Structure formats: C-alpha cells, structure tokens
Amino acid sequence: MNAAATVVVNGPALAQRLPWSDRVSHLGLLGIVLLLLGLGLVAPLVAILSQSLNPSASGAAGLAAFTSYLASPALLGSLWNSVWVSLLVTLIVVPLAFTFAYAITRSCMPAKPLLRTVMLLPLLAPSLLSAISMIYWFGNQGVARDFWLALGFEGIYGAPGIVLAQCFATFPHVLMILVTALSLADARLYEAAAAMGTGTVRQFFTITLPGAKYGLISAALVCFTLVITDFGIPKVVGGNFNVLATDVFKLVIGQQDFQRGAVVALLLLAPAVLTFGVDALVQRKQTATLTARAVALVPRRSRGFDFAMTLYCGVVAGLVLAMFGMAVFASFATFWPYNLAPSLNHYVAGLVDAGVATSLINSLKLATATAVVGTLVVFLGAYLLEKTRGLDMLRPAVRLMATLPMAVPGLVLGLGYIFFFNAAGNPLNVLYQTLPLMVLCTVVHFYTTGHITMVTALKAIDGEFEAVSASLKVPQYKTFWRVTLPICLPVLLDVSRYFFINAMTTISAVVFLYSPDTRLASLAILNLDEAGDTGPAAAMAVLIAATSAVVTLLYLGLGKLVDRRTQAWRAPQR
Fold first, then answer.
1. Position 59 confidence tier, pLDDT thresholds 50, 70, 90
2. Which residues contact 405 (CB under 8 A, 6 or more apart)?
3. Fewest CB within 10 A of the end CB: N or C in the chain?
4. Are 173 and 221 in contact (CB under 8 A)?
5. Cα dihedral value 298, 300, 306, 308, nearest 10
6. CATH for the 23-51+72-287+314-565 domain, from 1.10.3720.10, 1.10.260.40, 3.20.20.140, 1.20.120.520
7. What is this structure's pTM?
C-alpha cells in the first residue's frame, strides 16, 4: 500500500518505472496526434496567412493589401452587416434560451424531456433547413407572407431572413450551455435567502444571475461566433445583403481572387479568435459553485409560475416544430403553392434526377469515417495527455492545438485547405477533393468539443489505477483495456455521435473541398437551392435530419447496451 502511495505522489518515479517500449509507443502515438493536428490545422492557417501577403491583382502585397481592402466600402459594409446581425441574434436568442433553461431547471412544468428534445431538433439538420423553411413561411409565395409584410418588412430575403433563421439555428447551442449553468446550483443559498426574508425576485438577481453569469457569457460568445461565421443561411436567404462569410465564397469561387479571399478569411477569423480568448479568460475566473457539501436544488411547485413556464416553453417549442413541420410539409407538396397534395416528387427529383442519392452515400461515408477516426484520435490524444508521463516538450503544443479549432471558423479552415493541399509543390495535393481529406477537415473542425469531453471524463478517473498497476508491474495496455476503456465507453459513444451528426450537417468546412464525385448531401442542398429547386432542397434537408435522428436512436440503444455490460458498478448496491 505504501509503495502504491509513493508512486501516486511521485510522478517522475512513475515515469522512470515505465519500460522503454512504453515510452517509445507514447512518443510515437503523441507524435501521430501532433502530426494530424499540424497538417489539418496549423499548416492551412499558415497557408492562409501566406496567401494574404502575396501580391494581388492590383499589385498590392503584404500589409498594403490589407490596407487597400480595408479601405473599400464593400468590405466595411460586409463587416458591419456581419457584426450587427450577429449582435442582434445574440441579444434575441440568449434571453429567450435563458428563460427556457430556467423553466427546465427551476420549475415543475410537465413534459420537460419532451420539450428539451424538441428544442434540440435543429442540431439534426443543416443550418440552412431553417432558411428554407423561412422561404416557405414568409417568401414571395409563403403561407404567412401577408403577415410578414404587415409587420413592415419588405421580404424575407436580406437581414430579416438571416436574423430569423439564425435564431432557430443557434437556439439549441445556447440552450445546452445555459441548462448546464443553471443546473449547478446550491439549494442552501436559496434556503438561507428565504430564511432572511429575501423575495423571489431579489433571489433571482442576487443568486441565480451571478451564479449563471459565466454560462451566460459563454453562451453569448458561442452564439455570436456561430452567426458571424455561418455560411449556409446567408447564402440561402441573404439576397443582396452581403456578409463576410458570403464574401469569402464569392471571391474564391466566383472571382477566383484567392489573395483577397484570404484577407477576408483572416478578418472572419479575428472575431472568432477574440470571442474564444474572452471565453478562455472568463473560464479562468470562474470558481466552483458546487462544493462537497452542496445540496441539489429541487424546484418547488408553484401553480402560477409552472403554468407560465409551460405556456412559454410550449410556444417556443411550437415555433420550432412549425419550422421543422413546414420543411417536411413542403418536401411532400406536389407543386407549391398550387398543388399541395402529398407526393414523393421532390424526393425523386433530388435523389434520382439531381443525383443526391450518391451525395447521401458520400455523406454517410464521411460521417462514419469521421465518427471512427475522430473518436479514436480524440481519445488517444486525451489519454496520452492525462494518463501518461514524460514528453513534456510535446504536451503544451498538443494541448494548444487541441483547443485552437474551436476558434477557427469552418469556412476559414476549408479555405486554408485549398491553399495548402492544392499547392503544386505539395506532395499531399493528391488528397485534394477526396473523402479522406474531407474527413481530416471535419475531424479537425469539431476536434475541440470532443477533446474537452474526453479530458473531462479521463480526469474523473483516479490516477491511482495507473499507479497501482505500475507498482505491480502490470503492463499499461492491460490497465487501459480493462479499466480505462470500459469506464470511458459511454463518453466515447457520445463523442462518436457528436462527430457523426456534425459530419452529416456540415457545410462551411467542406464547401471548397469537394468534387462532383465527392459531393455531400448538405452541399447538394445548397446547389439545389441555387438552381431554384427549393422543393427538392427541402426534401434533402429533411432526409438528412431523418438520417441523423435514426442514427441518434441507434446510438442511444447502443449506449444502453454498453451501460448494462460495462457500467454495472455505477448502480447502487443493495
């Protein structure tokens, strides 16, 4: 027992006891993770910076290129449009999502799981599904067009459509953060306040809001970043309202002006990096709200409050269902708006006539490969960082590169892949426009969330397992196989599902990387909408959402099976 304790305290002693073969394997595996992140993240970003400093068509190079483009009214207009639209969506979504999260965590309203599930539906479909639904609701031939015009709007295309569609697309992301923030509450604080005669309203402003302020800040930053970097929604309903994300696409695809496209990409990267830095600073200042003696807060029944929260959440959930329901209804309508009889015409037109069936298969291949490769690399990197010793020179670089993707918009990352992997002198250019490269891009794009999730799970496993194994001379791979892996299996499934769903719905990260043979279903929707085939586009968006929902149910079933086989130790002993 004393020997084991010595090993736990003395980290270097543990490193010295490791066989040389383990050290070599750790170095090799950590090197693989570092290589993948270097090729998939650092090299493309360096390529963007290099491209932005190259001479432009006007002869401007270096900082002169930035100065000349920053002085152009078009860029300033797009920059201002991106900023104020993102701020407006954030100001709308955060209070609405906070109220919904407050209702879930602090009321006794019925059907909480159902309402929360409904609000997560937008995560299963590409963001442009909400934009397509807005067209059918408020477009030129929309069901509620007269109502939209009566509100004073000229049409759905432009800033109003972008704001409305972004509110639906970003709501679930903000909701998840705020539900977590409000769930971490100590009932003793509220009991003490009530004993001192503090009213409910004052408790809200002195206990609830201060306790959730870091969650509110993180939610606001996430919402702002998602809106300012999104490409799909402005492309579908933006019309002549230019934003930075669509400017990058027009410059690169439409005008083949890679230098100016790189300049705009760096400008698009700036607010994302800024919000990421602010969020990291906020997280450092955050202190624990729950101690070992904390008491879980159990909401008390209040007929009036519960009714008000139920009514509010019902209305918001109804709006989300209306958005989804309209996309589903329009996808089955024979010929909108003249013949609304249900048919499969749009599905046939999309899958067969437009060849989206092949694109859907490509999306399934991409999602499956991303789920497998992404989960494996994320788990491997997190395990080597948290459960091994030594290699102190590489660890800071891996930690930094694992958190950096969160600050890089998908459109910027994809553009960097053009500059790096499509370079004539790069031997890796054979990967350009292939599924393996798209898998690498997608894994890197969503790497940070999976990494943080895995690190959190591994930190919860006491290091004494590895220490005792080392003292008993048990090979580390056996401890990994018999202890670490079984405990982490549920989290691995969650990370795998996260990679799969995001790979099915991603647009911005891969919009520059596909060929006719590797086109994805989400990108096919964009092409259909550009061609004016809104019905088939809606059908394909619904099909992606249905596929994601089925896969989610399969993951839930597999999760229950894994819990029965590997998580029996969590069940209370009788």
1. low
2. 41, 413, 444, 445, 446, 447, 448
3. C
4. no
5. -90
6. 1.10.3720.10
7. 0.82
